[in-house]
Every structure is written in structure tokens, then in C-alpha cells.
């Protein structure tokens, strides 16, 4: 299932507009903060699908019938661009375990590229809820490669893929190439065009550079 939250009227649309805006992008602190806010909103939407357990909570005046998460998810991201969204998600799932994947594109002269993984740290994922977040889903190859690496730590009960902006081609690639089929995609927006260099149009540019500075 693919959830395109741009189809709904909410404050999320404001934050998506701001991370796209070439003038607002000049303020890297605001760019990171908006990605964090997007992560929080996606976390809230995902939370509606999770399991809850009835609980009795003591207040100063009595006992309240409440509900609490039956189990915390594992929140994973791809370094470095995914860090602000990851921060937003764990603002809501503040007792979650965490996983990190270091991945980058190695480009070739013919405009092709391969995805290299350099780092992986994850708890056991066996039968857990996994939230895998990344601000941009372009071709989809980096995210699928990262997910395959995470599966070495066990097969999740369900995976939620949280994205700020995705391309239609990237969504199609996920649908056809994710090694497990028990996953749901959550997008702040979906763009139609992908360039030959696998950049989303209109997109927003390079999320990692905008958040943390230009790479060498």
C-alpha cells in the first residue's frame, strides 16, 4: 500500500513546500527542522496502524483507562540525509530501538551508478515493526539495498517506508524489488519525473547537502 499524504489537506503540505523552496533552502537549520517535522507527522500517521494494549494509569485523582503501544518499533535510516527525519520519528517513538545504514552512489561516466554500503548497525529485527525513513526516494535502488542489508538482522513483522518525496519510478521499483512484501509506503509527496542521473524533478535537490553541507 502506498499512502500519498499530499492528497490530504494538512500542515504537512506547508513543510513539503518549504523544503522545496530554493530561497528557504538557504537556511540549513530550517531545512533540517522541516525534515524533522515531516518525520513527526509520518510517525503519527504510522502510529494509527500499530497495536495498542489497554492500560490503567494512575493520576493524582484516580485511575484512567488508557492505551499504550504494545511494542515499540525499530526506526532505521540511511546516513546522512535521513538523520533529521529519523530524529522526528523518534521524537514520537522515544523508546524505539534504532538502526543505521551508510550508503552512497558511485557514479560512472555513462550516467549509470551502483550503490555501495559502508556501514550497518541494527538490533534484531525478527518479528518487529520496522520504520525505514529517507527523505528522497529517487530510483529506489539505495533503499532496497539498505533494506536487504537490514534483513540480515531478521525478518520484520511489517515494514513502514517513510519518505518526504518520492518518484513514481522509485515507488514502482520498490513494489517490484523489495525482498519482502509486507511493507507500507508513506510519502509527503510523489513526483512524476526522474532524470537520467536519477534525480527527482521537481524534487528539491540533494537533501544531504542542504541539511549538512556539500560533500567533497
CATH architecture: 3-Layer(aba) Sandwich
Morphology call = globular
Remind me, CATH topology? Rossmann fold
What integer is the average pLDDT? 93
What is the CATH first-level class name? Alpha Beta
What is the string of SSEs from the N terminus onward?
EHHEEEHEEEHEHEEEH
- Indicate the multimeric state: single chain
Helix content: 25-40%
Strand content: 35-45%
Unreliable stretches (pLDDT < 50, length at least 5) are: none
In total, the number of strands is 11
Number of domains: 1
State the end-to-end distance. Answer: 38 Å
Could you describe the largest sheet, including whether it forms a barrel? 7 strands, mixed
What Rg is obtained from the alpha carbons, in whole angstroms? Answer: 18 Å
Structure overview:
By secondary structure, this protein is of the alpha/beta class. The protein has one domain: Rossmann fold (3-Layer(aba) Sandwich). Helix content is 30%, strand content 36%. The protein is built from six helices and eleven strands. It has helices at 12-20, 28-47, 83-92, 141-150, 168-177, 207-212; strands at residues 2-4, 52-59, 62-69, 74-79, 97-107, 113-121, 129-137, 158-167, 183-191, 193-194, 200-201. The strands form three sheets. The protein has a seven-stranded mixed beta sheet with strand order 1-9-8-7-4-5-6, with helices on both faces. A two-stranded antiparallel sheet has the order 2-3. Strands 10-11 form a two-stranded antiparallel sheet. Strand 5 (97-107) and strand 6 (113-121) form a beta hairpin. The protein is globular, with a radius of gyration of 18 Å.
Amino acid at each position: 500500500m502506498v499512502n500519498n499524504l499530499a492528497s490530504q489537506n494538512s500542515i504537512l503540505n506547508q513543510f513539503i513546500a518549504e523544503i522545496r523552496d530554493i530561497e528557504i533552502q538557504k537556511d540549513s537549520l530550517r531545512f533540517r527542522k522541516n525534515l524533522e517535522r515531516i518525520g513527526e507527522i509520518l510517525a503519527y500517521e504510522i502510529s494509527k496502524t500499530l497495536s495498542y494494549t489497554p492500560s490503567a494509569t494512575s493520576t493524582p485523582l484516580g485511575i484512567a483507562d488508557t492505551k499504550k503501544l504494545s511494542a515499540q518499533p525499530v526506526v532505521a535510516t540511511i546516513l546522512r540525509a535521513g538523520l533529521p527525519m529519523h530524529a522526528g520519528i523518534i521524537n514520537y517513538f522515544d523508546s524505539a530501538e534504532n538502526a543505521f545504514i551508510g550508503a552512497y552512489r558511485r557514479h560512472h561516466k555513462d550516467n549509470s551508478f551502483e550503490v555501495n554500503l559502508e556501514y550497518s548497525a541494527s538490533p534484531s529485527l525478527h518479528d518487529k515493526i520496522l520504520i525505514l525513513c529517507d527523505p528522497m526516494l529517487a530510483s529506489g535502488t539505495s533503499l532496497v539495498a539498505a533494506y536487504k542489508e537490514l534483513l540480515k538482522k531478521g525478518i520484520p513483522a511489517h515494514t513502514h517506508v517513510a519518505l518526504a518525496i518520492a518518484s513514481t519510478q522509485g515507488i514502482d521499483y520498490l513494489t517490484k524489488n523489495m525482498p519482502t512484501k509486507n511493507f507500507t509506503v508513506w510519502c509527503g509527496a510523489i513526483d512524476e519525473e526522474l532524470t537520467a542521473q536519477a534525480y527527482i524533478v521537481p524534487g528539491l535537490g540533494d537533501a544531504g547537502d542542504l541539511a549538512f553541507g556539500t560533500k567533497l
